[in-house]
Amino acid sequence: MSKLYEEAKKRYAELGVDTEKVLEKLSKVKISIHCWQGDDVTGFENSGQALSGGIQTTGNYPGKAKTPQELRDDFKKMLTYIPGNHRISLHASYAETNGKKVERDEIQPEHFLNWIEFAKENNIGIDFNPTCFSHPKSDSGFTLSSYDEDIRKFWVRHCIASRKIADYIGKELNDKVVTNVWVPDGFKDIPVDRLAPRRLLKDSLDEIFAEKTKYNIDSVESKVFGIGSESCVIGSHEFYMGYAVKNQTYLTLDTGHFHPTEVVSNKLTAILDFVPGILLHVSRPVRWDSDHVVILDDELCAIGQEIARNDMFDKVSIGLDFFDASINRIAAWTIGTRNTIKSILLGMLEPTEALRKAEIDGDYTTRLAMLEEMKAMPWSAVFDEYCERNNVPTGYKWLEDVKKYEQEVLLNR
Ligand code: RNT
Ligand code: ZN
Known about the structure:
Blueprint: H1 3-14, H2 19-26, E1 31-34, H3 68-79, E2 87-91, H4 113-122, E3 125-129, H5 149-173, E4 177-181, E5 186-187, H6 195-208, E6 216-221, E7 232-233, H7 237-247, E8 250-254, H8 268-271, E9 278-282, H9 298-309, E10 316-320, H10 329-348, H11 352-360, H12 364-374, H13 379-389, H14 397-408
Parallel strand pairs: 1-2, 1-10, 2-3, 4-6, 6-8, 8-9, 9-10
Antiparallel strand pairs: 5-7
Helix pairs in contact: 1-13, 3-10, 5-6, 9-10, 11-12
This protein binds L-rhamnitol and zinc ion (ZN).
């Protein structure tokens, strides 16, 4: 135990916070780390199809993973910098088909056996996502809400196949797998009919979720706009919130998918009691982009506080969704994931009961004073201690190792 930690432990104890209990609790929090930061959302279909669906990676940083093995190597490397035990979120487009062309509506569990093996070896869970973009059948900008019945049905079949894969994975790992449905559907310019496509999307979702699954958990993700869907997104927040409440699916809240002054931290408690669970896509919006690398900003801290204060860990699944191709991808993953863990730790280190008491008593002076003092508490010593106990680097040390890996592995690709 470091001197700094000992000191921090005392300081927190004075406020009634037991850092040992916090570290114990933190060790149970699993982050669902997205696989797609490692290869710029390319996947392994080798179709030559560019990333589409109104999301974009920019930058050409060398060393991106081009094969499933490279992606797994990089993911594994990244995990050595992350304290705790976590999960990997896969997209259907990361299927391994042995060079054979397998259409998206025909993917099978067998195409994910290497990923299952990888998860078992590294003792991590898996979450899943159908891939309804970067495909000729999504070129019109519409998938599950398409007026073209062939196209709509194709994507329905793809999502059903994805759920079956998720269910299989769950059975293999004896674990729940959250399958997140996000579609890019929307209009660039002002549509005449917003209702019909929304009804089509609803019908598609009903068809997709018709069959019961055992290990799979369904979730639906909204968006406010995308590139090419600036005027109307079919799967908007109200649409999916209504759908999730009515059908009791999980609701995915991507922190990059709302208006600039709207925050997900304020939505968690509003929705929590009306859905079986929430999947977070922790991200960072910057102007048109919803997917910058997550930094430890006010909103991230507020999310950590909300989850910790209300002990929502059972109902909120914390997933990540960002992709930056202009910096070292392993570093991007590490920064965003460590920050997310830090935000949870910060939330847990709060003397919530004392703060709540001040609030109930109407003593907002104390509440504000305490909240501000908390910002300068020695929480980083607690984070370092957590890293040390988990045998992962503290401070900047992970970066040196990333640079070494870049020289030895990434630049030779
Ligand atoms: C897109 C959604 C979606 C994707 C990933 C790749 O705006 O956020 O979650 O980013 O599925
Ligand atoms: Zn997302």
